[in-house]
Each structure stands twice: as structure tokens, then as C-alpha cells.
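so my prof wants the structure for this chain in the C-alpha cells format not the other one, which i didnt know existed until like an hour ago. anyway here's the sequence
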Amino acid sequence: MITASDTLTRLYRGLAAVEPTPEDVGLGDAFLDMVIVRPIVAGDALDALEGDLRGAAPRFADLGPDEIRVVAAAAARHLAVLADQDGVWLAPFARAPYCHIATGARLGELSHEYRRSPGQEGRFKRMADGLLNVLGQPSGDIGSKAYVQALRLGEAAYVLPDMLLTLSVSPNRYVPELLAAVEPTLTGALFEMPDWVAECVRSAAAGSPGVEWPTLSWKGTEDVTGHVDAALRQFTELGLAPHGAERFAAFGQLLRDAIRLHRAELERSCLNALRTPVLGMINLVERKTPSARRAHGTAVLDGRLLDDLFAASPEKSRDVVEALGKSRWIEPGAPDRSLFVTSLTRIPGPMGKIFSAEDTSIIRRWITWLAEPMQVAPIGAAPVTVPDLGAQPDEPAPSTFTGPQTRELFYDLVAGRERARSIRRAAAFVEYWLDAAQVIEKPVFSWELPERYVADEFPEWMHKTYQDMASAPVSPVADDGKSHRDRSFHGAADNLVDGAWLQGLTRRVVLSEAEQLLYDIYWDEIGNGKPGHSHGVMYEDLVTGLGYQLPKFWTRAFIDEVPFLDEGFLAPVFRLAIADFPVSRFPEIVGVNMVCEFHGLGTAGISKADGLTDLGFDTSFTRLHIADDNIEMGHSARSRDAVVFLMAQAARLGVTDEVWERVRRGATAMRMAYVVLMQGRLGIAPTQVPAHLLNASGR
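here's what i got, hopefully its the right format
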């Protein structure tokens, strides 16, 4: 149950996770549905707040170093809630089904360039984290309770990030709304600030080693507008964006108001940091109280033990501040002559490493204020109507999946609007198939991962296995291509979402070494953002050339009206489902990736393609994979290196055997999804098994 008092911060914590829970996704949907119907802040209240802020704004030239630091720190905390997830709401354009549509692919390319091109990855996050580390508290783990507490933001500061993050986790539900978020993201509108605040941030960044203020505008507005308009038209025509134009316009206005609110909250926080030094000092005492209790021994203040004073804090934080202000440690109006500053808080003083640069500036400004302690009321926040979302239904997921259930889950994962239910069922399916695949009788495979991982031996194992597989005899095509046609038709659902097992990595803001290698593979799979170049689109051309006119794979007709075998949905559903868990299932994903990339290579693969070409079949899809998946610099090489990086990390943590077993389970599950269809139902024998493996099996 989420109450109105903590709705927005709690929602941010859940939606900022790489793997948001079904409950959090459901709450996000409920929140955004309500906000679309009833805006969260009245327009006249926002106008009034902006007017108050304009009248109170100082000139940057009138601010001293301490003022600049407290303003920059306050601004950085507000920027952090956007910077930590910068552009993640654009990630759906690089995932199925949108990356298969020409206009969606172009937006996917823009999203990729904005987030991943050299110097771009996490640039706003680096800036915000850098300022927080230098000026204030470190950011900590995104989404944690401690992180949110360290940001010290009001509820209104979370309206905009919650809206954007909901778009990122439920894109199929909010396609027109998602499109409305593209332009303000790519043009930097989300990070715009009042000039005087921006000057403070740039000044603080310039004085902080390793912190750089990024350029806000990344793409020209006119260019982005044209791509968004084209996508809106095409998505509406394809049925992905019902009432697209109306919803796009309405949400665009709502989003502009949310950006105004976020900017106003940022400026209000910065102004209050300047206007109310005593409140900043009281807040500082409250923040330090947990570590200050029982830390001062016999030290006294105003005739009382400091430990006793802090024992009554934070409720009595004002008493602590007033006692300190009257003590010999403070000279009102003269921070540089106050012993608290010169003797206690400077290194190597007893509190030399307790206060951040922002904390020190807050102390200095309070001491200066004490000379003429004028009481100025803080500027109040705009009244925000926060909905009470209530509890979301917890629909139980099945423990096993029939053929029709698997088909239905395929539709849910590529086009379903009930994202919370899809994630819940995806988790159940992954668990089900990982277990079920282990007990199915296994045929002879062209290769299997070693039972144990040995770091020095794995690269050599890859090389030798490739040599054996590449030189394996291939049976000639003896059925006039019937097996090829059957495989192509019943495997359509799988190949149309080629690469889907890695699409969850698009939600990562900063990638690890292993993740980066797999992301590079994924980017190739979807055609590097070039319309018509994704493997799925190329496969659609292949089946069309075979005479099959299939509905688009994201439509109900694809699962309801085409006589696919149910078994043809095992592999794509497993790949789509496991992609929703790029952190908790990363070892299994690495295993899945090995199976998907390390096959059909070398002379044997080419020989098979040549045989089909001789029969008049288009083999460009097969030859593309032979080229892309090569062992030298292609997907197989990256897959190998991803294993090496993952297992090196596992070794450092002392969990090599456990992680390797999970990699093997993922590989087996992926393998058996193919086996159940190809060999179990279609009777198509593997065509590339090294002779020594066949001989060893007695088959």
C-alpha cells in the first residue's frame, strides 16, 4: 500500500531499478493514468510559484563562493533524479517491436547516439555524481532508501522522473506519450535551469577536478521533430498508437508543465538554501545526528553534555544550533575567525573529515548570518495533488505453461499493455523453462560448455571447438529444401525478434565490460539503428520470399491465425522473458548468448548455405550470421570475452562454480527450446555435429 505522503519518492525508488517489480510497474501505470486525467499541479499555482521565484532570484555576480557551493549542491540533487536514468525512457525504441519499424529504428538510433556514443554514456550522471561527491553526499545506490534520503527533495521533484520512468517500463501502453518525451530529452529541455543557477553549477563544476558540465542541446529541434512526427504517423497506422495525435498533443502539454514544475522546484530549493541559513544549519544537525550521538565524550555546550543534546535530536536540533551559536566556538559574522571553522572542521581537526564542501559552506553562511539574523520565510512549494494509488492486484503466475499460454505470453511481451502481468509471467516462465529443459533427454550437440570453468583453458576450448564445428561434415540438402521451409516457417517467431535476449541491457545507464560486449552484439542484431537492417526485418523478407505472408509479429493475428506449432514459441518467449531480468539473470543470459551466437560457422555453415542457394533459396540471412558471428572479431569473439569478464568477476567474489553452473543452465535451456521444435516436432536432425561426437555417442 502506498500512501499519498510517500507516493512519488516510493515510486521513483521502484521505477529507477533496472528490474522494477510487477507491483512497481503497476503502480507506475496507475500513477500516470491518473495524472493524464487530472494534472498533479494546477496551472495557476505553478504560474504563481514561478512569479515568486523570478522576483527573488539573485544575480550570479552578487554571490560568493559559499553561496555558489550551496546552490550548486541543491541543483545537483534535483538534477540527479533525472541524470541517474538519463534517456532510459528512450530505450524502448531500440527494442522489439519498435526497432523493426522504419521510423522507430531511426528513433532507436538517435537514442543510442544520445546515450552510447563516445563521451555520451552517463554524462549527466557523471556530472551530478561528481558534484554530489565534491560538494555534498555521495549518491549511493540508485533507488535505495538511503539514496533518496540523501537527496533531500520534496515530493514535487519526483513528478517528472516518475512520469518518464513509467514510460520506460510500460512503453506499449503509452506509445504516443513516449514519443512526446523524445524531443525534450534530445534537445536538453529536461536539464535547463534558470541562468543564475546554471552559472553556479558551471562555476562549481569548473572548480571540481573531473567534473564537467555537459552541453545540454544534443540535436537540432527541427530534425528531431520531423522524426517524431513520422513515427507518430506510422505507429498510429500500424495500430500501436491508438488516438495517437490527440494523446501526443495532450501529453506534450502535460510534460511541459512537469518540466516547469521540476525547474521551479530546483530553483525554489536553491533560493531557500540562500534565504534561510539557519534552516540549512538545523537540517545539517538533523542529518549528522545519527553519527553524532555518543561521539563527543565529555565535551559540553551551553553547560550540557553534547551527547545529551544530540540524544534529543533531531526533534531538538534547533536547540543544538542555538547553543552552538552562543558558544565560544562561533564569532557571529566572522566564519574565518570562528574556532569551529578554524580549529575543529579543518583537517587535521577532530571533525576535519565529517563535513562535505556543501556542509562547510552551510556552516560558514550561518555564522555570517548570525551577525544580522534576519528571519526570512522560505518560499513554499506549489501544492501538488498526490494520488493515493492503493494496492495493485497480485495476479498469481502459472508454474507451468501450456502451448496456448506460451503463445499468449509471446504477444504480451512484444505488444501487451498490461506490463506488470507480463513481467510476473515472464519471471515464472524463465524459472519453469530453466528447470524443465534440464530433464529433457538431450541429443548430441555440436558442442557443450565445459563442466567446469578454467580461466586459462576457456579461450583455447573456444578455438578448438570452433575448428571441430567448422570442419564438421554437413549432410547435403536431400529433401528439396522442405526442412528449410519448415524450419523457416515455424521458427519465424524466434527469428523475427532476433537479439531479444539482450534487449534488457538497453535499460542500463552505464554498462560493465561484459554488458558492453553483449550490448554491442545486440546493436548489431537490430541493424545498428538503420531502418530495414535489423535481423528481424531481414528475416521477414526471407519468409516473404518463401511465399508466406505473415501478419506483423506484434499483432493478435500472428499468434491466433497463423498455424505455427506451439513449440515454435518456446525459444522466442524464453529469450524475450529472460531479457526482462538483465541483472538477476545475467549469468543465464550469457549462456543463452553463447548458444545463439556460437554456431553455424566456418566451412560447414557456408556449405549448408551453398546447398540451399543451389536449390534457389535466398540464403542472405544465413550468410549474414556466418559473417557477424565469426570467432575472430565477431559475435562469437565478443561472447567469449563476455564469459571471461563475467567469470573473472565471479572468481573475485569466490563464486566461480555457482556462476558457471548458471551459465550452463542458461545455455541448456536455450538449446533445448530449439531441440523441442526442430528435432522433437519437425524431425530435423542437427546438420553440424563433429564426427568424434557422433562416434562417441554411438549414433
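also thought this was worth mentioning. Confidence is low (pLDDT under 50) at residues 687-699.
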